[in-house]
Sequence to fold (161 residues):
Amino acid sequence: VNNMQIGERQVQVQSFLPRNDRSAVADYTNIYAKNLPSDFSSEKLDEMFGKFGTITSSCILEDKNDRKFCFVNYDKTESAKKAVEELNGKDLRTEEQKQEKKEGEEEEKPEDYLMYVSRAQTKAERVREFREKNAAADSGAPKRAQGVNLYVKNLDEATDD
Fold:
């Protein structure tokens, strides 16, 4: 049946791989970017992301905390990979904003202002990645004892701690 023509499609047969053993998606054209400045517009998006290839579609959205993020879809995988490689971790703050933060007492974490750009993932992929990341972090921590809470009844009223 391998490489056989069935209807209009060619059929390929491979041995089954469990989901955890499968390699990550190598070919993608849709990317996700967050930590965008509040004045980020579609013109800036086209200017910033357009230099990596032809953009087939894009959208800029805001979450409930008024933080901007966007999705950009390219026509070629190479364009998307190049954009992720070049833009991930880029600091989009102006010199004034950088000086303002230095003078302020509270130190910001780099995750709060550095641009995050990666392949757009489905919710199932994000949940699996989050679980794997937290499982590795929790494996070294001691487990909470189970069944240590006791309820004792019919004690004498004179009994205390």
Q: What stands out?
A: The longest helix spans residues 123-138. The radius of gyration is 25 Å. The mean pLDDT is 83. Strands lie at 4-6, 9-11, 30-36, 55-62, 68-74, 116-119.
